[in-house]
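fyi for ur records
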Amino acid sequence: MGFLYEEQLKFYQRFEKAVRQTGYKGIIVASCWQAGSGLTHLYNLHADYKVGVIDRHNYFGGGDGHELKTGKFTNTAMVSNPGSGLLSTGFQQVQNRPFQISEWMELIPTEWVAESAPIIAAYGMGLQGWDASYSFAMDYGDFTNTIQSHGIYNVTSPSQLSLYPALAAMIYRKDIKEGRSIINRNIQLSDLSMGIVSIKDKTVQGFDVKSFKTEMPEAVLGVGPVTLSFDAPKANFSEGWKNYINSSKKTVQSNTGQLLWDYSGKGYFSINTAGTQGVVGFGNQSQIQLRDMQISTSNNFAIVLVNSLDKIQSLSHCKRLLITTMARAKNTDMAFNADTTQLLNLGKAPILLEPVNTEIKLLRKGAATLYILDHSGNRTGASIPVNDGKLVLAGDLYKTIYYEVVFN
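which gave:
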């Protein structure tokens, strides 16, 4: 194993030198691939670390192959298991190196694909402090007519692309704070050379779909940053992560206080920052109490995000705010078996969106007007006065993803 590692590292460093000799000063990725578990995984990760940024690919859900087809598929949701699926990729983040995920997607016909972008944004780019995210693949500049495009990989499905304005605003305004590091596990290369593996990481791989298991619960990724290091002066540390995971109530609180993951039922998480607030997942059993509003929905599964439309001002002081709503999407005539684990008919265009019916009670005072927007975010001409901050968003009536609230 040491021989293979040394040969791999020599190969990487030869190409790194050649690239640098061209005058290129940007980041370099050695490889975006994992290499098994234990010794192979750690040697491979260290080779990537020696060259530059740590980059990984991961997918979640779906069936077999790269094309949408009838047959059995995985229809579980990541919100049901904190830290699972795409977020578990973060167990490979290394201290003092940028970390990015350059291919990711929750795969159709899994029904809950709309959860994936908020998880990557809030927990990956936000709490964990990941540095870059590239979903796979975007072929068009507008929404596609069917949920499949470029096979099962479709950023331009409404269940993906429609959420990007809200999530991008949240990330670039730095609404989500990076958490305090809660765990670092230090690897001694001298141990690896003797075949000693001090950590018990395991890669569970089904081709493109991967998950990562450690001696810790996956839920620690919902508390704060988790890292590895190599021959670091500071040894392993663990900062009280158990205080943030309530196993009896089945909740995971981030150490920033901004994110709360509740898996007591099918699972949901709430975002509670000055500039962005909302709920993602199966939150219909609760009225979600946030700092500037209360959110409730009759949908079994939904995403409701409320953003300040001011680059600086918070939700409590902005002139305008954007509300983004999304649930499930499917093709016309798409058909499943009784327990929704097998796709029977692919269906056809156009895409059908499940309407989101939600009530939002804004806690701030003052008169406001609610504008109904179209699927590109433009005003349709329809508006509703807002009384006492109560917004009744009837998706089955308004047939839209977006709403704008303007305060008088």
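The CA atoms of residues 203 and 212 lie 5 Å apart. thats all i got for now
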